[in-house]
Design a protein that fits this description.
The chain is mainly α. It contains 5 helices and 2 strands. The model has no long low-confidence stretch (mean pLDDT 86).
Length: 89
C-alpha cells in the first residue's frame, strides 16, 4: 500500500478491500514452490475434514506388528486414549 501511495495511487476503503480480496484469492490459488507445487487452497481442502490429529503406521511399524515386536491393538488403544485417530491402512 505504501508503494502504491509513493507512485500517486490512492485507494478508497472499498477499493482497498477489493484489492485485498483479489490478492488473497490470487495468492491462495497460486502453485507455491515451498509447497511442492500445491496451492494453499488445495492443501486446506485436503485437511479440512480432519477434526482432530491422526496417525498412520509406516512400513517399519507394519513390520514390527507382523514379527510381534509391537502389539498393534495395544498401541492403537493407547493412541486413541490420547484422542488421536488411527488411520488403518
Amino acid at each position: 500500500l505504501k508503494d502504491l501511495q509513493e507512485v500517486g495511487v490512492c485507494l478508497t476503503e472499498q477499493q482497498f478491500k477489493t484489492f485485498l480480496q483479489l490478492y488473497s484469492d490470487f495468492s491462495n490459488s497460486s502453485r507455491k514452490w515451498p509447497l511442492c507445487g500445491w496451492q494453499p487452497v488445495e492443501l486446506s481442502n485436503l485437511y479440512k475434514n480432519f477434526s482432530k490429529p491422526a496417525i498412520s503406521f509406516g512400513k517399519n511399524m507394519q513390520r514390527a506388528f507382523e514379527d510381534g515386536t509391537l502389539n498393534k491393538d495395544e498401541l492403537i488403544e493407547e493412541i486413541r486414549k490420547l484422542d488421536i485417530d488411527v488411520i488403518d491402512m
